[in-house]
Amino acid sequence: MEIPKIIGAGLVVIGAGIGIGRIGSSAMDAIARQPEATGKIQTAMLIAAALIEGIGFAALFAV
Amino acid sequence: MVISNKPLQFITAILIACLPIFGFSNTPTEGKPVPTETTAVAQETTPVVEEETSDSSDSEQAKQIKKQIKEVIDHHVLDGHDFSLFEYEGQHIGFSLPIILWDNGVHIFSSSKFHHGEAVAESNGNYYKLHHEKIYKTDAAGTLTEEHGHPTNAKPIDLSITKGVLTIMVVALLMFLLFTSLAKSYTKNGGISAGAGRFFEPIVLYIRDEIAIPNIGEKHYKKYMSYLLTIFFFVWFLNIFGLTPLGINVTGNISITFGLAIITFIITTLTANKNYWGHIFWMPGVPTPMKIVLAPIELLGVFIKPFALMIRLYANIFAGHKVLMSLIGLIFIFQSWLGSSLSFMLSFAISIIEILVALLQAYIFTMLSALYFGSAVEEHHHEEAH
């Protein structure tokens, strides 16, 4: 259990969390502005979240 | 509904409230394995127990529980050469699968010859031993030359039907039966589906209308529809199978996701037109120094995109299984009313999320594959200058 590895893993998770959080918040704003486009916005949000999660997992496995 | 909602809720609440009784299932005086747990190789625990005789019996108990939990988790997430469901009072419940080895000649025998890793199997004069679910070639006594904890014996080429391979075959058969019956029902009922396939028709249409056509375009999407549908249902069904307590974890195996990503990569590369390669090596619409800088980056991107597909599916499913099993193991570590019931509720919530993740990962894999196919067959857009 090396300390740099633990700190690295924590940073990766923070990065992924902030990224997906920002996407979620702008998706909420967009849905609030235009409720009829909810389906498209949700789809785009899920895709972006999955891509960020992919990077997060890849980094976690490298660590 | 005929039955009113209130008695159902009451019964469900009582059932959930009584489940922390499992926390009592491992008494502190004896260290005998719990019947519902699977213990893969029992001889691994006894050397550890002998070392710990100097500690107090409580920490020795705790260490043994943790060792058992680790073995259960490994048994669940790793591929195995036999399909053992659990061990009950020393008897393994499950069935053995054929082992097919290529070692200057084909050796086929049943995995029951290994006796769950304890015996040396003999086949046509060669002796094989199973160690941590890998097959090594040994002599009649079963000696494994160790180095840094890993045996360095020669390994034959292992083509056996393992748990994962059997599950893939079962899912393939299931999908085949399901969708051929759905297709046949259209001809029998005059254009309307009937039977169990009715659930899948809107999903198939969704994949066509929301994933394939927007990403690939009207002209070319039909070529790729069969692959996209196959990938979606294959990954979804395998993810759901992994959530059952049978201990089959296929998509959480990097070899499987590697295979799926390779197929996407091959299809993208083989059906790409000139515009695709043009965009990679000589990106139109940017100044020439930028083109030279972009070429290696885009070339790297060609390989990284399927690689990310592989890692994304593998890591999501594998990590989900490990977290879920560790939380379930926490129930047995706490062994108190409060700790065990909280762990149980947390693992229940996490398994609900895992069901969502199963569908989401299948959707993301399909969507990104469609995106890559779309970029491969994209027509040339004329840049409009205003």
Short description:
The complex is a heterodimer of chains A (63) and B (386). With 63 residues, chain A is mainly alpha-helical.
Please explain how this structure is put together.
With 63 residues, chain A is mainly alpha-helical. Chain A has helices at 3-33, 38-62. In chain A, helix 1 (3-33) packs antiparallel against helix 2. The radius of gyration of chain A is 15 Å and the shape is elongated. Chain A starts with a helix and ends with a helix. The mean pLDDT of chain A is 87. Chain B is mainly α and 386 residues long. In chain B, the strands form 4 sheets. A 3-stranded antiparallel sheet of chain B has the order 4-3-10, with no helix packed on it. A 3-stranded antiparallel sheet of chain B has the order 5-6-7, with no helix packed on it. A two-stranded antiparallel sheet of chain B has the order 1-2. Among the domains of chain B are: 98-160, no CATH class; 200-376. Helix content of chain B is 56%, strand content 11%. Chain B has helices at 5-18, 45-51, 57-77, 163-188, 201-216, 221-242, 254-270, 274-281, 288-334, 337-376, and strands at residues 82-88, 91-96, 98-102, 106-110, 120-123, 126-131, 134-138, 146-147, 150-151, 157-158. Classes of the chains: A mainly alpha (63), B mainly alpha (386). Chain A binds chain B through residues 43, 46-47, 50-51, 53-55, 57-58, 60-61, and chain B through 210, 308, 311-312, 315-316, 319, 360-361, 363-364, 367-368.
Name the features.
heterodimer, A: 63 residues, mainly alpha, 0% strand, B: 386 residues, 3-stranded antiparallel beta sheet, 10 helices
List the helices and strands and how they pair.
The complex is a heterodimer of chains A (63) and B (386).
Chain A lengths: L2 H31 L4 H25 L1
Chain B lengths: L4 H14 L26 H7 L5 H21 L4 E7 L2 E6 L1 E5 L3 E5 L9 E4 L2 E6 L2 E5 L7 E2 L2 E2 L5 E2 L4 H26 L12 H16 L4 H22 L11 H17 L3 H8 L6 H47 L2 H40 L10
Antiparallel strand pairs in B: 1-2, 3-4, 3-10, 5-6, 6-7, 8-9
Helix pairs in contact in B: 3-9, 4-6, 5-6, 5-10, 6-10, 7-9, 7-10, 9-10
